Amino acid sequence: MKKTLLLLISCSLLAVVCCQDESGIEKEKKAIIAVIEAEKIAYYTQDLQGLDDSWVQEASSRKLFLTSHGVTELTGWDQIHQNNREAIERDWNEHVETVQYLNYTINVYGNTALVLHDSEHKITDHGEESLLNMRRIIHLVKIDEEWKIDLLAMYFMPHNPLGVEIEM
């Protein structure tokens, strides 16, 4: 009887600990998505401070753009901040763009996280509509209970009709 009661209590405690851990991870995932969405909103509302606040502001931070022309790597906070400033200060009347982040995959490892998600851009420029798809890989670090981006790599997804192979 005592063994059964001890086993029941042990199982109950284990279930509580496991459930708390899972709900804790889900809470962290929601906080991570909130940071990524806030970074997007700051970019499209031309809020430099909001954009900068989403980043780890250290020499170790990296931002990479992978295109058909090659890789552009911004190394360290100074280069990332300058890129943010230039993006915010450019002429935004060139086109209308709506962006949606989709298909999040998030892995939390203590105070770090790795995120992969799609980015769908619908662009209207002088009456012409186009669709630009990107994939973003983001590494975040939790500093003082806040998630911050310390690595962002984005690459463009080629457009290919269904059934057409893309040569690599």
What does this structure look like?
The chain is an alpha+beta fold and 168 residues long. The chain has one domain (2-156): Roll (Nuclear Transport Factor 2, Chain: A). It is built from three helices and six strands, in the order ααββαββββ. It has helices at residues 2-44, 48-53, 77-89; strands at residues 62-67, 70-75, 96-109, 112-125, 128-143, 146-156. Strands 2-1-6-5-4-3 form a six-stranded mixed beta sheet. Strand 3 (96-109) and strand 4 (112-125) form a beta hairpin. The radius of gyration is 21 Å and the shape is globular. The chain starts with a helix and ends in a 12-residue tail after the last strand.
- Classify the oligomer: single chain
Helix content: 25-40%
CATH topology: Nuclear Transport Factor 2, Chain: A
List unreliable stretches of 5+ residues: 10-20
Tags for this entry?
Nuclear Transport Factor 2, Chain: A; 168 residues; single chain; 3 helices; 37% helix; alpha+beta
Structure at a glance:
This protein is α+β, with helices and mostly antiparallel strands and 168 residues long. It has one domain (2-156): Roll (Nuclear Transport Factor 2, Chain: A), CATH 3.10.450.50. The chain has helices at 2-44, 48-53, 77-89; strands spanning 62-67, 70-75, 96-109, 112-125, 128-143, 146-156.
Topology readout:
Blueprint: H1 2-44, H2 48-53, E1 62-67, E2 70-75, H3 77-89, E3 96-109, E4 112-125, E5 128-143, E6 146-156
Parallel strand pairs: 1-6
Antiparallel strand pairs: 1-2, 3-4, 4-5, 5-6
